[in-house]
Automatic annotation (TrEMBL):
It comes from the Eukaryota. PROSITE patterns: GST_CTER, GST_NTER. This is Maleylacetoacetate isomerase. GO terms for molecular function: glutathione transferase activity; maleylacetoacetate isomerase activity. The lineage of its organism: Eukaryota, Rhodophyta, Stylonematophyceae, Stylonematales, Stylonemataceae. SUPFAM superfamilies: GST C-terminal domain-like, Thioredoxin-like. Belongs to the GST superfamily. Zeta family. Pfam families: GST_C_3, GST_N. GO terms for cellular component: cytoplasm.
Length: 216
């Protein structure tokens, strides 16, 4: 049994971020699968793990914590790689955090299942997709401005950072989950998406590689 337990759902982009980080850092972890579609996140036992009834949550070092940005920074502070996923230079580190937060607080919440299902109830499938496309590309295009300025092989420079761990699942969601044309709307991020798709840590973290993926 590993010292790290990750509460995960294959389709959760927030959990996807942490799977990438854990894999990149070479950390062993046990998966605790929570089926959001079946509303297992509202089970009484899981509510004791995460009072927001969300994934991800993680157990390590004798504590349980939630919120992907909090967990990502804790992993970096306690299990740092070389090169680090948060650069040592304060200015560069701020850019990495800015990109991650554009996704974390400015983009991903706008495509949460509960929200878009409610939009569909009120306005139909076309209204839902119009909302998703506008909301996702608003955030992704903002991130692309920064990647164009500061990117190299990866989102910020030539080393994998937390920015990549947050960007890739959102790009995957846009392209695969919603079938949006990322290449047309965000060509720079599309190239980054293709590069990251070949990284072993990303491949292993991808939804289709998870044991709770339908048909796995």
């Amino acid at each position: 049994m590993s010292e790290i337990e990750l509460y995960s759902y294959f389709a959760s982009s927030c959990t996807f971020r942490l799977r990438i980080m854990l894999n990149y850092k070479g950390l062993e972890y046990d998966m605790k699968y929570v089926n959001l579609k079946a509303k297992e996140n509202f089970d009484e036992n899981f509510s004791k793990v995460n009072s927001m009834n969300q994934v991800p949550s993680i157990r390590l070092d004798g504590i349980t914590m939630s919120q992907s940005m909090v967990i990502a920074e804790y992993l970096e502070e306690t299990r740092q790689t070389e090169p680090p996923m948060l650069p040592k230079d304060p200015k560069t580190r701020a850019i990495v955090r800015e990109i991650a937060e554009i996704i974390n607080s400015g983009t991903q919440p706008n495509q949460n299942l509960g929200l878009i299902n409610r939009i569909e109830e009120l306005g139909g499938a076309d209204a839902k997709m119009a909302w998703v496309e506008k909301a996702l590309f608003r955030g992704l295009k903002a991130a692309e401005v920064l990647v164009e300025k500061y990117g190299g092989k990866y989102a910020v420079g030539d080393d994998l950072t937390i920015a990549d761990a947050f960007l890739y699942p959102q790009l995957y969601s846009a392209a695969v989950r919603f079938g949006l044309d990322v290449e047309k709307n965000c060509p720079i991020l599309h190239r980054l998406y293709k590069t990251l798709s070949e990284h072993p840590a990303v491949i292993a973290a991808s939804p289709g590689q998870q044991k709770d993926f339908p048909g796995a």
